[in-house]
Amino acid sequence: NNNNNNNSIRVMIVDDSSFNRSILERHLKKHFYIIESVANGLEALNLIKSKGNNFDLILMDLLMPVMNGYEATQQIRAFEKENCLKETPIFAVSGDLNDKTRKMCTDSGMTGVFSKPLEMSEVYEVIHKILLSKSNTVNINDDNEENKISQQQNLSSKDNNESTDNSLQTKS
Q1: How far apart are CA 119 and CA 122, in angstroms?
Q2: Which of 34, 43, 63, 75 could form a disulfide bond with 10, CB atoms 3.0-4.6 angstroms apart?
Q3: What is the DSSP letter of 158?
Q4: Nearest to 83 by CA among 75, 73, 94, 72
Q5: Where are the beta strands (DSSP E) in 101-149?
Q6: Reduced to 3 states, what is the DSSP secondary structure of residue 145?
Q7: Environment class of residue 31 by beta-carbon count within 10 Å: exposed (0-12), middle (13-18) or buried (19+)?
């Protein structure tokens, strides 16, 4: 559904792969979301600081040059806390989501994780919750732990039913 409310959803894509950024941008722009893309965690942090943290969702790659996704998330959380800002949902996007990586994501302050190849339906489900939370008093983090666990289980066991066009490839 492409409706006028979608243009108020702002998504930041943080990935050092221009290929991955362009695929995500293409899918999200189909739904008229406002997209900003950066190539590393430091650029993400600077964008958050310059824009006053007005993003609804951040899709964060983990392994990037300059500043990785873990450090960027920690710095963003510190900035939000220092400035009494609401926490922006930050979801890791990674091809390597073993238990250690998942724990590092949680410990750094990430909201959840998406596995590569990325299932866009999972991303749209999170965005739908954000839309609901913007229009109602629903808090996206109300069932945060339960969501994280179910998303991790679903993502690790989910078979890729969508076409290759709908998924990001893992880095080689």
Answers
A1: 6
A2: 34
A3: -
A4: 75
A5: 112-115
A6: helix
A7: middle
Please give the model's pTM, rounded to 2 decimal places: 0.76
What are 69-81's pLDDT values in tens digits? Answer: 999 999 999 999 9
CA–chain centroid gap for 40, Å, is: 14
Q: Report DSSP letters for 39-107, one per residue.
A: SSHHHHHHHHHHHTS--SEEEEESS-SSS-HHHHHHHHHHHHHHTTPPPPPEEEEES---HHHHHHHHH
- Using the structure block, give the residue that is written with the tokens 């950024």: 21
52-61 pLDDT tens trace: 778 999 999 9
**Residue 9: C-alpha distances to residues 47, 55, 56, 84, 140 (Å):** 16, 8, 6, 21, 14
For tokens 């243009």, name the residue: 7
State how far the Cα of 100 lies from the Cα of 154, in Å rounded to an integer: 18
Residues 6+ apart with CB under 8 A from 160: 117, 119, 167
Could you tell me whether strands 90-94 and 112-115 are parallel, antiparallel, or unpaired per DSSP bridges? parallel
CA nearest to 55, candidates 45, 64, 63? 45
* Pairwise CA distance, residues 148 & 125, whole Å: 13
